[in-house]
Write the structure tokens for this entry.
Amino acid sequence: MVKLLASYNDKVAATVLEKAPHNAKYISPIIQKEILHVIASKVRRKIREDIGDSKFCILVDEARDESKREQMALVLRFVDKMGFLQERFFDIVSVENTCSSTLKKELSNIFSHHALNVENLRGQGYDGASNMRGEWNGLQALFLKDCPYAYYVHCFAHRLQLALVAASREVILVHQFFSKLDLIVNIVGASCKRNGELITAQQAEISRLISIDELGTSSGANQIGNLQRAGNTRWGSHFSSVCSLIKMFSATGTVLQNIVTDGANYSQRGDADSAYTTMTSFQFIFILLLMKEIMGVTDVLCQALQQRSQDILNAMHLVSTTKHLLQKLRDSGWDTFLRDVNSFCESNEVEMPDMNSAYKVGRGKSIHQPRDTNITIEHHFHFDIFLNTIDTQLKELNCRFNEQTLELLTLSSALDPSDSYKSFKVDDICTLVDKYYPADFTEQERMLLKFQLNHYHLDMTKHEDLCHLSTLTALCEGLTSTKKASVYFLVDRLIRLILLLPVSTATTERAFSVMKLTKTRLRNKMNDEFLGDCMLLHTEREIADTFSTDSIIDEFYSLKHRKAQL
């Protein structure tokens, strides 16, 4: 790296490596780690300065690294002086175990080292594990003893994941569908040869569709792809897997037929034949397209919850629209959906059953079979699969995202600026302050707040820059940029407190992704400080880029006496 820099800069080339003093080249691993630690320390100090004396929230998660050590990542969520909501990766710590008392001790040490007052803690965001969310001995309960206003919010992204996975397991036919989907993907993607056959089959299918004018041509269109494998921990990967099979349905069938004919042994031929028979059944195609419709609705919410610095009221709105669209699909989407299924079957030459004929239960007794045997095939697919699948998802979403049970969020919605402050309610906002944030407002300020809110509402609805805002985050930024934050300082303070409520732990998940890139199988002996510094500079590199080289050199030189002046 030094040689590369020297080749581009003559001044650097004149002072490094062979041109440097032999007793002060500063290229040893120890020195390099010291320089890295200097930059990382400056980043942490900058984050700490941005927080200042304001309130903050913590996002915590743990994972095992390459050397099989438990690592705990800490992310700080706060609103800066300019009114922007920030989520900053702060540190990663190796822990002996994941019990709540150990995690609490390590977090307290970090707070103490960086002068973060636990009394300023106003939110906790975890993934929902028992050691985190336990009401009596969980990490959130331990911090609530120190600060009763550090409210815990279950990660919305994990809630959605739990809701949808649970829904798939409730409907046995859907659960079986995903098992069969995994089998098809594994068979087709088992070797480079089969992937090559899949690509060839796709090219032939695209050429055929273009020749009969069923497929258009343009730059970037008709891309060749591979079947996507569904992951166990990310529902978004299931959506990608379903969409990829729909796009490559014909090509996948061709590959499976080739394996049935030319497979190396009876096992390959038998598995491929079973997979092809399953894939070309009406029931499989029906559930395939149904899951595409359902997950297409929920994928927007999934992606939004993975965004950085999402505000909690906006997340609640996304949940509401998701439930509304699912309900609409349930109530009035059957006829359109069935036409789409019929069209897909016709285009892929799959035999369609007579929907008006009697449904045959088959041999044996199964809990997923209808109790009433005097039903039609359409009734079975409509009620036992279509409605049942959507109902289980709606049930889970209603259970895990119930606005009525989350009183704090319900009262907070009174501050929502969407629809020209349609939800604005002075009494709810005052109740919110009295019940959940009494330590952040004096008695006199709580009395003044009601009068300030009346002025605030009239002003906001008439202000040309603030009357059409849609999120609480945008409102906070707008109040600061228009200097209204100093006029309605109590309202601004309350909005900042609400924004601290965490939506998801996506930032900590990203930190673990960086950890896997940093601490690899070939670098599994990294110590914790070096790992934390590398992760911090990668994750918060936009802060590190603001530091001048001279400031880094000066701080490095001030650590201890050096043999040569830098």
In short: The radius of gyration is 29 Å. The longest strand covers residues 85-95.
